[in-house]
Amino acid sequence: MQQKIKKIINKKNKSKIVSLTAYSKNIATILDDFCDIILVGDSLGSVLYNYKSTREVSLDTMIEHSKSVRMGIKKSLMVVDMPHNTYRNSKEALKNAKKIMSKTKCDAVKLEGGKKISQIVRILVKNNIPVMGHLGLLPQSDKNFKFKGKKIFEKNKILKDAKLLETAGAFSIVLECVETSLAKIVTKKIDIPTIGIGSSNNCDGQILVFDDLIGLNPIDVRFVKKYSNIRKVMTKAVSNYAKDVRKKVFPLKKHSYN
Ligand code: KIV
Question: pTM of the full predicted structure?
């Protein structure tokens, strides 16, 4: 097992795992100093491309953004989402995961689902491809974007799926919008770290979409804390630039060549 992956697993019960998404080099460069894991999430479909769902994201799009992100990372573990319809069976999953690993030089891939994909996870891991799981709300397949784990059948399924992913060799599991007490139980019952998004502080780590955290993506959901209002800062900068150009005070002599 890669040293970097071992380091993440060893954080369980010791220190919280910090994780964010990045879709490009300059952002990854900023995150790298503070994060343990940087995820090239297929959330880029809605955040950057205005797709209705992540189901429209292609493998090539993920690869191109990941190549950019790779250039900005020196130390964090880099994980890339396998997009919808790229891991429908073991053969397809292995071919596409190998392509992602070799083209992007990432450290691991992330797949959504439990029992249905556990055999695929086993095969990827056997082929030295580290896998992060993803349970709870599954944007690639769920029709209903509500939090999970209130109903007893959901609770049992998520717990069972977490154990199956661990047994299959996943090194960590994202828990998206999982009810607080269930997140605590899952985190306690497995030996690999859980990374929560909308799943309380009972998880071993946290992840957010970077554009949400800085207030660039105009969404308002309960689990996002906006740490800045970057839209305001950017709006001011652009408005000042526009004023300067119109008033002919930009560019000045010092911005010009002679
Ligand atoms: O696609 C993504 O950004 C994700 C995170 C929200 C976990 O899967």
Answer: 0.97
